[in-house]
# Entry
Amino acid sequence: MKEEKLFIGSHVSLAAPSYFAGCVEEAVSYGANTFIFYTGAPQNTTRKPTSELNIDEGKKLCLEHGIDLSKVVVHAPYVINGANVTKPEMRSFAKDTIVSELRRTNDFGVCILVLHPGAHVGAGAETAIKQLAEVLNEVFDSDGTNVKIALETMAGKGSEIGSSFEQIAQIIALSRHPDRLGVCLDTCHMNDAGYDVFDIDALLEEFDRVVGIKRILCVHINDSKNVRGANKDRHENIGYGEIGFNQLYRFVHYPLLDGIPKILETPYINGHAPYKIEIEMLKSGHYIDGWKSQFENDN
Ligand code: FE
Ligand code: FE
Ligand code: ZN
# Structure
């Protein structure tokens, strides 16, 4: 049997009534063989117990459709800021929430949790990085799972940390559980942070030198509305932004990234998910000029 090397999917939503089974069905409807989901709302930490999320049914569907759960990814809510040294209550909230997210991720049989490193909110990156590393040490001391955290490379908007490979490397260097840490590259974020995403060889060489290529657990494939170095973080549909289809296609099929899940987080168009066609184009290499118009004209 030919070994599958390309794992590509998108964000899907965990919604009533079918929850996890619905995530899998949504992914399959896009022609995807992986996906990313939040185990509740992205912007808050209110969560339903995982026992109510139809996990067994979802796992059964994964088996039926050949979806390998080791390539599926959970995204932690983005309100967590373990790097905030200015508010002690944020620190303990972040710790408790990350522990809970790791356990929830484990309940789904998923082994990768993507986490935004956070923001220093004026205190400076150095102390923020130290605190985040210590929070993660305490998290890994107590969560009781083997789920890995993939620190996402950020665009550098506001006082975000983790927008340089060096900062990601510092977080890992301060860890007592470095085996539990990896990285999620985001093409839009790297572009917006100032990296040259048009030279993947050089980009990944630099990443390998600073962090280590083996740390990459996931790649977010997004076009960017903004030019290199804009520090914005506005995702654009594939082919409509500053990175463009050809370069995003290269990321998806780049040999060094074989086997690593590639996940789209591009915007909806007029309430329609763009993922089926975006995934199809990124698989085949055949770009359809003006593809978005089919969504824009229907109302
Ligand atoms: Fe993210
Ligand atoms: Fe992302
Ligand atoms: Zn983003």
